[in-house]
Amino acid sequence: MPALLDIVLIEDNSADRELTLRALQQYGLSNSIAVCTDGEQAMRLVLRQAEYAARPQIGLVLLDLNLPKLNGFEVLAMIRANPETSQVPVIVLTGSHGAPDIAEARKLGADHYMVKPVDFAKIVEVAKDLGLKWALLLEQRAGA
Fold it and tell me: Is 91 domain-assigned?
């Protein structure tokens, strides 16, 4: 069986963070999920710097746009600019329906743009579209 993707959720709002984590866990997701609450912490984790040097490579980023220290657009640009992370799929999760935000996220290389609240079934659908189906492992649920 292929290795599971390590997922990074980058979200500063505690209510949105808990809802997203609950949506992911509700489906029995077995992947490791790391949480970052600001753009600088996120970049240290994604680039495996400082306290994150021993972490495995990240396989999927769920990125909010409105972050402290570095905003989501800056984080996305840095992910795409780094040769080690340039191919990591990034799904932007945001409350903004604004066409300029969507256009900017796409211009910077976001693989997908989703408006919160997060629906796990939609994340799975997007992951399949990105060719990540094998990497999101769902435990068997009774009656499934």
Answer: yes
Residue 100 within any structural domain of the chain:
yes
Each residue of 23-58: b (16+ CB within 10 Å) or e?
Answer: bbeeeebeeebbbbbbbebbbbbbbbeeebeebeeb
Q: What share of the chain is helix, strand, coil (3-state, %, to 5)?
A: 40, 15, 45
> Cα Rg for the chain, rounded, in angstroms?
14
Domain extent for 84: 7-131
Global pTM reads 0.82
- pLDDT tens string 43-68: 999 999 999 998 888 888 999 999 99
CATH number at residue 69: 3.40.50.2300
